[in-house]
Amino acid sequence: MGFRRLNCRVTVDTTKMSLPNALNAINNAEKTGKRQVLIRPSSKVIVKLTHSSIGEFEQVDDHRSGKVIVQLNGRINKTGVISPRYNVHLSQLEKWVVKLLPARQFGYIILTTSAGIMDHEEARRRHVSGKIIGFFY
C-alpha cells in the first residue's frame, strides 16, 4: 500500500505567457485532484476567465506582481488560450461557440471587449464584440 500525498497546493511561477501557463496549471491541478493552486504573477484575466468554475480566490499582495490562490471545486474539464486573438463580431460568435465548446450551454468563451473582459453570453446580452482570449468548460 502506498502513501497518499496530503499536499493540496500547486505553485506555478509564470514569468512569460502568464495566461497559458496559469490555465495549464489550473488544468493540471484539476486532473490530479488538487484543491488549490497558487498562481503568480496574478492577473484579473485569469480570475475572470474561470469565474464560475472555480471556488473562491484570494489575492495576495507580495509587493511585486502579486499572487492568486485559487480554490478548485472540480468543475473544470478543459481550459485553453486562443492565440492569435481573433476579432469576433457579434454575428460570428455562434460560429466560434460551435467550434470551441463541446455542447450548447456548456462552457464559456472569454472575450476582451471595450466594456471589459466577459464571457460570450454576457457579450451577447450587452451587444458588444471583441477579441477571443480563451475558453473553458
UniProtKB/TrEMBL annotation:
Entry GO CC: cytosolic small ribosomal subunit
Protein name: 40S ribosomal protein S22
Keywords, in A-Z order: Ribonucleoprotein, Ribosomal protein
Pfam families, per the entry: Ribosomal_S8
Keyword Ribonucleoprotein: yes
PANTHER family (UniProt xref): 40S RIBOSOMAL PROTEIN S15A (PTHR11758)
GO molecular function: structural constituent of ribosome
UniProt KW Ribonucleoprotein keyword: yes
Family of this protein: Belongs to the universal ribosomal protein uS8 family.
A single BP term in Gene Ontology: translation
Organism this protein belongs to: Xylaria bambusicola
